[in-house]
């Protein structure tokens, strides 16, 4: 941890200036298809590289060797998004790329061992989004009301602002992951296939969808009593899910052309929003009690508030986001995840391993409640064209899951260094995570991260 502190200090001291946004970016990679500019195609391309130093959970092995810590570099996201507005009413969007490639995993299907198709190599590219959309009522056509309807593999998944967040402009280095409570179980990387409706009425924005969740089939462990039963994702003949998010935008009205919610505007807008959302899926999990299978609904609710405001006369800004999640996946449901986890279980470990598993895994989502709050401050600058701008931030998470006897708290602290706003930035962050060895006993381990992000 001393080494981590020294690295962080050097990075923080090495940047002397600051900046906000790129004057050269303009409308980005936009290609007009007619002389008016109403018909066009736009491309957005981004890459996020992570350098990390991580304390491993007890009982971890990396590539055949016991490990208590790890340093690595990995590709968190490499994405391309294309959308075309071929009339005022009709739009088509596709979004594809790779995620989470490390030196031990994240490669294409069936890549193992050593060599040209060894483990972690040649990752598989897949579609994150693919949908068509039609504007039934354009803004201004019917007073304050607007309505668009679309269908396909989409991101209008309701629940919270961060559930539909853009990965290009986070305040912290990344999302906390529990904002995507179905991730890679009954969804495809936070998306489901279905039909959605979106629109506004003045400062009120709405998003609703009906979707067919991807099938899940985990086998529940049989329990002698209902109190001891543990729900797992098993949807059988999957029933349709319903999702919605409703938000009132008190100050500036945000664009809803795309579903991706901005994490930090860097003082370019005055935003104060209050929102609430839900996701419900009937008979989506199962338990086994004395040999009898029981089905359970997934019922998820959230309420959040978002503030992003310029401060003073020298281009400073404050950003605050707070969200409360109330999750019900069924009795004692608990899911452990580790982002870009390079560790696996060490069969020869003689101590007490972490309940969440090896590497950087932690209890991430489950039946219970989660409160998450983040805040950041863009340091003011009086220069017309500052070289780099600095935005320190912090985040706090409190999780209280039914399956664990003890609630947990964890934090993130770091800073963004904006070279060209979010288009080119460096983020440094230190994060803690809870490590349970029994349901009632936990400690904290840490991870130091440097992220390099570029998007065009």
From TrEMBL:
Domain of life of the organism encoding this protein: Bacteria
Endpoints of the signal sequence: 1-21
UniProtKB keywords: Signal
Protein name, per record: Porin
Organism (species): Flavobacterium rivuli WB 3.3-2 = DSM 21788
Lineage: Bacteria, Pseudomonadati, Bacteroidota, Flavobacteriia, Flavobacteriales
